[in-house]
Specification:
This protein is α/β, with parallel strands linked by helices. The protein is about 40% helix and about 10% strand. It has one domain.
Length: about 200
Amino acid sequence: MTAMCDVSFLLLTFFMLTAKAKPQEPVVVDTPSSISETKLPESGTLTILVDKEGKIFLDMTGQHTRYSLISDMNSQYQMGLTEEEMKKFSIFGAFGVPRKDLRKWLAMNSSERQNAANFPGIPADSVGNELGPWIHNARLAQFRLKQEGIVPEEYVIVLKADKDTPYPAIQKVLNTLSDINVNKFNLITNLEADPNKTQGL
């Protein structure tokens, strides 16, 4: 029994020290319901969040990919980020600010970054669309790292929108994905009972 207690506490300590907490999303999204039972992968996802006001946020898994992405964006758009700021970006969660405000977002504390009221969202209008370059460069960074054997798979694009989001806001995202030749993506929904399976009950 003594040996079993030692092993149990050793395993408990190991899991406590190695577990990573998932960053909290800056917006609460009440997704629509569907009967689809397809499960999303736990890693290798690039998530587009759209809240009920139509604000767009972007989140992606993989610290290496995030660093490669921000490094590319920093040089491509002359954002003026320092090495320390790019490292911060690589470990933070979802963001929803225009490129010009990214430095302010990086300087916020964790409670400020979790308050959606502080963010205007990523612009996705036909003029000055910033969402497209972020997604395009993130996919390129993930593909490059996959070729180098650093990550196991390419990104799965995931759209998570609130059920009360105005349709024009969703249309902006769909148009952006179409413009950068992304024709396959997943829509996150809540599972509801399939009426065809419950008719005989």
